[in-house]
């Protein structure tokens, strides 16, 4: 009997962004288990929880690639962690599958990106926001590369639109003291707030914005929304009551979207996790990445990364995200854009969409090029 190909699953399921890490881990494990039922013995997972420690990520990647025989790692949530382990992946000529939205300006031959980059989330988001709410936003960000770069791009977009930035502040991932941030927003009275916070900082901020809106209706979501590119269904349970209702988030997928692939996956997810489990965009993107990896290994009969890449470039796969193909020039997937508004049932109502957008991680042609029109739902 042949030896199974090992796939590393490297997500922090403890620490400040544990909810996101668990959702990604569950999706990768779920895909491996599903394919294992029809392709027994083909792949097996190797798990490491780095506990949100950059050192833990590096040690985990080394363990997987050097000691455990993995040639593929599905993993990392934050860009800091991704950038930290890329040199390890390169050294061992492995392949990292990155599935979370990120700030762009990267296209590495040792990384497959099924998470969205800014021309797939931030640019169409601003196409929706600027004509409806105004060109004077407030920028709140996590104090690392995601927050810095997303807010830098937002400044560029606002300057190009002839607007101005009302204010800008950064918080550590685990910071929950947001009083100064809220006071600054109340004083500056922006048109909307771009929320690039992560984990507990984001949850505390949304709760505090809800309290601000209750005492000053000018900050209600319909007048001054908080908008994100990284808030998904897996985190809404961490927000008490209805504090985030009406706020918005951009994603390549929302739970319950129509489609045959979605219906089939939903039935399997319900059987595996229970009827209350929602399929977030990061669950969908991680599931799709794991499926692409396993299907490529099966098709070529090997897990050699270069052969897997070549297979990906020549194949279009039907996934929950729609037809998915990896672009040979960027190693990114073309992804749809959806804008969702948080509802009272703990999910999102889709209010605008755009068909699959080819990734342009360096924004070489997207800043000035005419972009397809948004389809407005409500």
Detailed description of the structure:
The chain has helices at about 20-40, 55-65, 80-90, 120-135, 145-160, 180-190, 200-215, 235, 260-275, 280-300, 305-315, and strands at about 5-10, 45-50, 70-75, 95-100, 110-115, 140, 165-170, 195, 225-230, 250, 315-320, 320-325, 335-340, 350-355, 375. By secondary structure, it is an alpha/beta fold. About 40% of the residues lie in helices and about 20% in strands. The strands form three sheets. It has an eight-stranded mixed sheet with strand order 7-6-8-9-10-13-14-15, with helices on both faces. Strands 2-1-3-4-5 form a five-stranded parallel sheet, sandwiched between helices. It has two domains: about 5-115 and about 255-335, Response regulator (Rossmann fold); about 120-255 and about 335-375, Response regulator (Rossmann fold, 3-Layer(aba) Sandwich). The longest helix is centred in the first third of the chain and has 21 residues, at about 20-40.
Helix-strand sequence: EHEHEHEEHEHEHEHEHEHHHEEEEE
Number of DSSP helices? 11
Sheet with the most strands, sense and barrel status: 8 strands, mixed
CATH architecture identity of the largest domain:
3-Layer(aba) Sandwich
Helix content: 25-40%
CATH homologous superfamily identity of the largest domain: Response regulator
């Amino acid at each position: 009997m042949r030896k199974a190909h090992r796939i590393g699953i490297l997500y922090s399921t403890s620490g400040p962004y544990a909810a996101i890490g668990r959702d990604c881990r569950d999706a990768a494990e779920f895909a491996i288990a599903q394919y294992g039922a029809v392709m027994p013995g083909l792949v097996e997972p190797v798990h490491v929880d780095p506990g949100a420690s950059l050192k833990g990520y590096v040690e985990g990647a080394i363990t997987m690639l050097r000691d455990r025989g993995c040639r593929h790692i599905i993993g990392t949530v934050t860009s800091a962690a991704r950038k930290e382990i890329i040199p390890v992946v390169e050294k061992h000529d492995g392949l990292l599958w990155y599935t979370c939205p990120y700030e762009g300006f990267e296209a590495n031959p040792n990384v497959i990106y099924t998470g969205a980059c800014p021309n797939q989330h931030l640019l169409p988001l601003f196409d929706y926001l600027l004509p409806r709410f105004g060109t004077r936003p407030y920028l709140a960000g996590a104090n690392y590369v995601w927050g810095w770069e997303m807010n830098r791009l937002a400044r560029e977009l606002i300057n190009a639109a002839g607007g101005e930035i009302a204010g800008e502040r950064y918080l550590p991932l685990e910071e929950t003291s947001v009083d100064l941030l809220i006071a600054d927003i109340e004083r500056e009275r922006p048109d909307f707030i771009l929320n690039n916070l992560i984990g507990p900082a984001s949850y505390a901020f949304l709760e505090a914005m809800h309290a601000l809106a209750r005492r000053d209706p000018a900050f209600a979501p319909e007048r001054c929304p908080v908008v994100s590119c990284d808030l998904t269904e897996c985190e809404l349970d961490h927000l008490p009551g209805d504090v985030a209702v009406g706020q918005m988030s951009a994603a390549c997928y929302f739970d319950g979207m129509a489609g045959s692939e979605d219906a089939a996956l939903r039935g399997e997810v319900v059987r595996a996790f229970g009827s209350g489990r929602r399929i977030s965009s990061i669950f969908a993107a991680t599931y799709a990445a794991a499926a692409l990896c396993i299907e490529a290994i099966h098709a070529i009969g090997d897990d050699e990364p270069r052969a897997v890449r070549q297979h990906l470039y020549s194949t279009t796969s039907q996934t929950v995200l729609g037809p998915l193909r990896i672009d040979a020039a960027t190693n990114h997937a073309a992804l749809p854009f959806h804008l969702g508004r948080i509802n009272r049932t703990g999910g999102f109502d889709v209010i605008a969409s755009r068909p699959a957008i080819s990734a342009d991680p360096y924004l070489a042609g997207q800043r000035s090029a005419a972009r397809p029109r948004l389809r407005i739902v409500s």
